[in-house]
């Protein structure tokens, strides 16, 4: 079945610096890749998504890149702020959405 | 827009009792709703997919007689945990999408924390 691997599991960056989270997927038929942010005790919140017909998408400080040949996609957060601290999940899949293991991002003031 | 609510937000019950969790799409009609379970510090695991008016499709390893799902309308799905046991304690999260395909955006509810004593 589909497998989505996410790295790193934890990431700590200084406020104002950039953060990058990477995911790989196994099913080449996958064509939709959302990223979710989950704060403690809350449900996941969609922050950005990308479809396989584009290579990059940006929304203010957040961007996602997709390399279909290599089957990997990445989340980039620039000018990080303390409120960016949360757990981030990538997802992908052809038959159903499969979530990565999550990355706990901590922004140090 | 695209708001999904869940009720209750948390519930404590005794072992052997049943618990019902509601998932509602507040400002859109959801053809498909999904139920996930999340254990502490772990990822989301899909339990089942439900389409309005149809029987739910359960993931491998999920007992359909234990986790009863009803998707009676385009805005409401319910998950009933029957004869709950301590190992069923978890964070249950639903999501809803307007379409039914895997490429459709899923909007998540706030989750329901279940503690079985």
Characterization of this structure:
The complex is a heterodimer of chains A (109) and B (117). Chain A is mainly β and 109 residues long. Chain A has no helices and eleven strands. In chain A, a hairpin with a 5-residue loop joins strand 9 and strand 10. Chain B is an all-beta fold and 117 residues long. Chain B is built from no helices and eleven strands. In chain B, the strands form two sheets. In chain B, strands 2, 4, 5, 6, 9, 10 and 11 form a seven-stranded mixed beta sheet that branches. Chain B is globular, with a radius of gyration of 13 Å. Chain B starts with a strand and ends with a strand.
Please count the beta strands of chain A (DSSP E, at least 2 residues each): 11
Mean pLDDT of chain A: 95
Q: What is the arithmetic mean of pLDDT of chain B? A: 93
What order do the helices and strands of chain B follow? EEEEEEEEEEE
| Class derived from helix and strand content of chain B | mainly beta
Radius of gyration of chain A: 13 Å
- Please count the beta strands of chain B (DSSP E, at least 2 residues each): 11
Rg on CA atoms of chain B, Å? 13 Å
Outline of chain A: globular
Helix content of chain B: under 10%
Q: What's the multimeric state?
A: heterodimer
Largest sheet of chain B, described in full? 7 strands, mixed
**Largest interface between protein chains, with number of residues from each side:** A-B, 23 and 20 residues
Question: What is the distance, rounded to the nearest whole angstrom, between the alpha carbons of the first and last residues of chain A?
Answer: 41 Å
Low-confidence parts of chain B, pLDDT < 50 over ≥5 residues?
none
End-to-end separation of chain B: 37 Å
């Amino acid at each position: 079945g589909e497998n989505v691997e996410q790295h790193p599991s934890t990431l700590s960056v200084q406020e104002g610096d950039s953060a990058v989270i990477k995911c790989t997927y196994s099913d080449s038929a996958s064509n939709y890749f959302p990223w979710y942010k989950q704060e403690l005790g809350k449900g996941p919140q969609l922050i950005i998504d990308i479809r396989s017909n584009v290579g990059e998408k940006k929304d203010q400080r957040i961007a996602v890149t997709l390399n279909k040949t290599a089957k990997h996609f990445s989340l980039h957060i620039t000018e990080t702020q303390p409120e960016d601290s949360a757990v981030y999940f990538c997802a992908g899949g052809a038959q159903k959405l499969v979530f990565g293991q999550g990355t706990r991002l901590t922004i140090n003031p | 827009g695209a708001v999904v609510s869940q009720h209750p937000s948390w519930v404590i019950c005794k072992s052997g009792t049943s618990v019902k969790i509601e998932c509602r799409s507040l400002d859109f009609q959801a053809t498909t709703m999904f139920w996930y379970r999340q254990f502490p510090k772990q990822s989301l695991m899909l339990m089942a997919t439900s389409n309005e008016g149809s029987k739910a499709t359960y993931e491998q390893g999920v007992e359909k007689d234990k986790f009863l799902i009803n998707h009676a309308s385009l805005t409401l799905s319910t998950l009933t945990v029957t004869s709950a046991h301590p190992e069923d304690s978890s964070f249950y999260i639903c999501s809803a999408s307007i379409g039914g395909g895997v490429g459709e955006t899923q909007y998540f509810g706030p989750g329901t924390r279940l503690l079985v004593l």
